[in-house]
């Protein structure tokens, strides 16, 4: 048992570290550090930079244009990326759709979409939740009815993250109403510029526009856009979730966030002394650091399983729950440390220190992380049933 | 990066787990702790024959060249059955003190005899006023000629009731709170002037207060360096905490498994109580507590031999805090989910509960270690 890297892995680490040092623009780093929102153009520009270096579709195998890294290399990359202060090349195309197309897509779909995801030419959004289908996703109602060689889609999707940026959507739709509800679901790719699509903004409690509700009114989608067979959508959705689970924990980013907070505790003052000298806060910071350590080693264990070619063990199911709890408690800590500046809203550096300008926004928005990707309660239902055998 | 066990480690794990399962059930344990001795000397011999007492020591010292991971494997399995035999006191604390600081003679004579299962040890450092502070030592060792004369009292000594030899901390110079000036001595428990007051601890094991009045030892009884005993004691206690954390994982996992089985069987309102979502989520929380604590025990074991003392101490304190908090949660939940039967002496659940309550305070409470961690992190 050891946590050492091989010589090759250490060289790889150095290579990645150097690349970020030389290529991460100062303004991107700064915005990321203080939690300021990125515009679409800013996001695309950074993703294209990553893409040109071969650092965008990092989890993909070589045959589809990825680097074909081992699990350990991917971990090293993510740690170095986070430690450098760089935002993750957050793309639903890369993390979610790519692996699905590789496993279930036709050759034509692979040839068409995978290179465009890799080069960051498309922006994909996810059409899963509906107003009446949240945790109970299988009850979704958006209909797709075959008419000649096209599906006609009617219904609505909600919480569509960056749907207003997206030109394409991968979507779960109902193609059969007369069977067990899971078996009537299909996975389909929709052009967001098609006629009959209406994207309406939902402003979240951080006061920003990340989310949308998307309405489909007789939207015609070519039959060849179906991924897998009719009725296979639920299987594909579950496959996709396994690819989402570990990335969502965000351990590497929480580590950087934590070390920034700790520095802040030394430079900010209260009662004429550095904040860190407040005993209550000092112990709270220590406790967060300890929790992060537990999360990091649980992550290592999952990683070691994957690296050894085993399916992630039961510990991987905790990563989402614990990882998102940590993200929330760190955001809470920043708000606490912000003191009076926690009240500041949509201001600039003339009003408050940059580190606190977005503290409350982040705290507010991160309430969502224990809800999206399967809420904490749904995760626990799954663990209870699948791992503990409780029915 | 590799978190798998070697084939030798797997064999040990299987062996110790099998022993606990087949030869150390709850009834057997109850009989053992009810005897006058309070532990089973025949089993201790068996541990020695199986090589379990020498596993973590180097081959030069007569061991098998293992390390903290091997110790953890044994301790976790022992925890699953709440084994009371003094592995922690004798092998981990006493053994490590000698392995790290012993003279060649001490190693050959005493450590060899420990590995053979013939000598039991204890490390005695706590005093009435010292609470968890290793440097608070009022016991004195006055030099006269080539001899030292020890005076003072050590309290709540793990395995102290059974120890043939005790490693005690005593002040050879400096003031009572000073880290410098502490020396460790190897003292025969039957030496003139030593009086051992034994009693049972909450978990059924035996502890002792050990008083020393004009106990005379030679310079050859010094373990480690004169006046430099603090760093050694600190390292020894850290190794004890690491092992105890692994034992706690065994106990937590046993509680989780037993509670899981119970909620599947126990019926109320005409259904198994495990069908209620409230109960299911609490079981998942226990499961998460066990697995994330296990991650911390691994982290701790991997960093225990670090030459960076701050890194080692931070790892130990982090594990003690995290596993302390999570083990308390598991223990309380196990009792709650068992309902009335959970608070009885009759069921093993309450005994695991007691053992883990003891763990939370052992070698420094959660609060003590949280502060130690914070001090080291500043």
Give the arrangement of secondary structure elements.
The complex is a heterodimer of chains A (391) and B (378).
Chain A: H1 7-23, H2 26-34, H3 40-52, H4 71-83, H5 92-104, H6 107-118, E1 124-127, E2 143-147, E3 150-158, E4 168-174, E5 185-191, E6 197-203, E7 209-222, E8 226-227, H7 233-249, H8 251-267, E9 269-270, E10 273-274, H9 279-307, H10 316-338, H11 354-357, H12 359-365, H13 376-386
Parallel strand pairs in A: 1-4
Antiparallel strand pairs in A: 2-3, 3-7, 4-5, 5-8, 6-7, 9-10
Chain B: H1 7-23, H2 26-34, H3 41-49, H4 68-80, H5 87-101, H6 104-115, E1 121-124, E2 140-144, E3 147-158, E4 165-171, E5 182-188, E6 194-200, E7 206-218, E8 222-223, H7 229-265, E9 267-268, E10 271-272, H8 277-303, H9 309-338, H10 348-361, H11 366-377
Parallel strand pairs in B: 1-4
Antiparallel strand pairs in B: 2-3, 3-7, 4-5, 5-8, 6-7, 9-10
Helix pairs in contact in B: 1-4, 4-7, 5-6, 5-7, 7-8, 7-9, 7-10, 8-9, 9-10, 9-11
Can you tell me about this structure?
The complex is a heterodimer of chains A (391) and B (378). Chain A has helices spanning 7-23, 26-34, 40-52, 71-83, 92-104, 107-118, 233-249, 251-267, 279-307, 316-338, 354-357, 359-365, 376-386, and strands at residues 124-127, 143-147, 150-158, 168-174, 185-191, 197-203, 209-222, 226-227, 269-270, 273-274. Chain A is α+β, with helices and mostly antiparallel strands. Chain A has three domains: 7-90, no CATH class; 124-237, Butyryl-CoA Dehydrogenase, subunit A, domain 2, CATH 2.40.110.10; 250-386, Butyryl-CoA Dehydrogenase, subunit A, domain 3 (Up-down Bundle), CATH 1.20.140. In chain A, a hairpin with a 2-residue loop joins strand 9 and strand 10. In chain A, helix 10 packs antiparallel against helix 12. The longest helix of chain A has 29 residues, at 279-307. The radius of gyration of chain A is 22 Å and the shape is globular. Chain B has 378 residues and is of the alpha+beta class. Chain B has three domains: 7-120, Acyl-CoA dehydrogenase/oxidase, N-terminal domain (Butyryl-Coa Dehydrogenase, subunit A, domain 1), CATH 1.10.540; 122-228, Butyryl-CoA Dehydrogenase, subunit A, domain 2 (Beta Barrel); 231-377, Butyryl-CoA Dehydrogenase, subunit A, domain 3, CATH 1.20.140.10. A four-stranded mixed beta sheet of chain B has the order 1-4-5-8, covered by helices on one side. A four-stranded antiparallel beta sheet of chain B has the order 2-3-7-6, with no helix packed on it. Chain B has a two-stranded antiparallel ribbon with strand order 9-10. In chain B, strand 2 (140-144) and strand 3 form a beta hairpin. In chain B, helix 7 packs parallel to helix 9 and helix 7 runs antiparallel to helix 10 (348-361). The mean pLDDT of chain B is 97. Chain A binds chain B through residues 1-5, 72, 262, 276, 282-283, 285-287, 289-291, 293-295, 297-298, 300-301, 303-305, 307-308, 314-315, 318, 321-322, 377, 380-381, 383-384, 387-391, and chain B through 1-5, 69, 260, 263-264, 274-275, 277, 279-281, 283-285, 287-288, 291-296, 298-299, 301-302, 318, 321-322, 370-371, 373-374, 377-378.
